[in-house]
Each structure stands twice: as structure tokens, then as C-alpha cells.
Amino acid sequence: MERSTGAGTHEQATVEPPGPRPRSLRAVVFDADGVLIDSAGVHAAAWKRAFDACLRALADRDSPQGRPFDDGDEYRRLVDGRSRVEGARSFLTSRGLYLPLGAPDDPPGCDTVWAVAARKDQMFVAALRERPVRVFPEVPETLHALRRAGVACAAASASRHAGELLAASRVAELLDAVVDGTEVARLGLPSKPDPALFLETARRLAAPPSASALVEDAAVGVEAARRGGFALVIGVNRAGGRAGADRLRACGADTVVENLTGLPGRIRRGSGP
Ligand SMILES: [Mg+2]
Q1: Is the pLDDT of residue 62 over 60?
Q2: For 256-272, what is each residue's pLDDT tens digit?
Q3: Considering 55, 63, 238, 273, which has the largest number of Cβ atoms within 10 A of its Cβ?
Q4: How far is C-alpha 92 from the geometric centre of its chain's CA atoms?
């Protein structure tokens, strides 16, 4: 769903982070779930339904190994931001459950890691039918303002549903490129915290990471952005609270915000490369 953008001809813009020196930027890459669209809770609930069914089948419910999935802390630490199969493997491994990997076309179930991932996807799709995902209210104006400032914008997501959800919510038309889980699979990109997805997205904007900002709500995504050499890493802590902000800073966020409202206000056209 990449579109020709002319991003390579954008003049550089300057972002003023809380730090002492403004930085020259040409592009902003946004994570999708939890940053642009209010879908992180739907993902977490779908994982809980999938994992809890499998925990009941695979472990003693009264043992630490078999306790229900925590869709707050365990979701954030072990699943959020990762590809579907990596999220499943990460959580199961944390409980000492080592299933065969299986294959991407395994049907929903509990026999393989791919089957657990497929069960989660089944739950997620069912949830979307019941309740459409909404866009965070400040997002359209934020993207309009960045584009008016000459800054290219893109979404990067490990989720195969992200492109579809961004299109349905009309956010995609405000973006210069969208790279979602379908593209990740096609290109064989590794899961976060590897920065490959973000680097590929910046490449499509013709902007090097050293001239780009990355906006993420997951700790593993912040770490990926840091590893990728992005000039400015903005953590999004929509739930508020110090613990969430500290977690994102500990992974390398330069600054943490609770929504995107202030982002365009920190950007002005600059002249330097
Ligand atoms: Mg996210």
C-alpha cells in the first residue's frame, strides 16, 4: 500500500524535543496499534481468550504455570509489538510451555505455536466484527499538521490487520506509506526488537533513520527504534502513570507523551540536512 509521496524532496524540518538541541527531521514513522488506532485493547483481549483456553488444556490451573494470562503486564512485556507467532512463543516460553513451532497454515488450536497464534487471530477477527476499531481523536489533525510542515508520515506495524484497519478508518489516506504484517511476512523481516520493519518503512519515505522520528507505545518497539538509530524516539503512554513512562524511557525513549497532540507543535521547517 505504499504510495508515491515525493517524500524524498521534502525539505527537512526541525523537531524540538525536551533535550537541549533541536534535531533536523524529514519523516515520522508511527507504530499503529495503540498509537494511531485504539486496537491494543482488542489485541490484548483476543490474546487472553486464546492463551487462557490453551493454558486450561496444557497446564494445571492451580499452578503458577497455568494461571490465566495477564492482559496488562504480561501482554505489555511479552506480546505487544511482536509478530503474532513471536508473541505466542514469547508468552508460552515464559510459562515453560515449549510447543512445536508448527506451520503458518496450522488451524486454530493449542498443539503448536502457530496454532495458538491462529486461535488469537480467530478471536481478534471475531472481536472486530462486534466492535469496529476507532482512531484516536487527535490523530487526523496531527497527521495533517505534520504533512503541512513538510514531514513525511508512515505507519509500521507487525500486525497483518493494520493496513486494513488504517484504510477502514481513513487514516491510511493521510500517510505516505503503510508497512504492515503482510509486508513483514512477504519480505521475511524479523520481529521487533529487531529494527528491520522500521528501517524498511523509513526507506520507503526516502528518509534515513538519522533524520526520522519513531513513535511507539510498546517497550519492544522503542528498543527496536533505538537499535535502528532513529534520531528521536517518542514513547506513547496512553494509560498515563509513571510506571508506563519509566518503562518506555528505560528501553530508550527520548521523551514520553500520553497522546500525539503536542507533536506537530514541536515541528517547524528547518534548512539543514
Ligand atoms: Mg503498538
Answers
A1: yes
A2: 999 999 888 775 544 33
A3: 55
A4: 21
pLDDT in tens, 68-116: 999 999 999 999 989 899 999 999 999 999 999 999 999 999 999 999 9
- Other CB atoms within 10 A of residue 56 CB: 13
What local confidence, expressed as pLDDT, does residue 40 receive? 87
How many angstroms does the Cα of residue 236 sit away from the middle of ligand 1?
A: 9
Q: What is the C-alpha to C-alpha distance for residues 36 and 162, in angstroms, rounded to an integer?
A: 10
Burial class (CB in 10 A: 0-12, 13-18, 19+), 180: buried
Place of cell 500525539: 260
Dihedral (CA of 132, 108, 76, 199) sign = negative
Give me the chain's average pLDDT, please: 89
Whole-angstrom Cα distance, residue 61 to residue 70? Answer: 14
Q: 12: pLDDT confidence band, cut at 50, 70 and 90?
A: low
Q: To the nearest 10°, the Cα dihedral for 266, 237, 220, 30? A: -40
- Write out the catalytic residue numbers: 31, 33
Under 8 Å between Cβ of 255 and 225: no
- The pTM of the full predicted model, rounded to 2 decimals, is 0.82
Q: Separation of 29 CA from ligand 1 center, angstroms?
A: 12
CA 6 to ligand 1 centroid distance, Å: 27
Distance (angstroms) between ligand 1 centre and the Cα of 217 equals: 5
Distance 43 CA to ligand 1 centre (A): 10
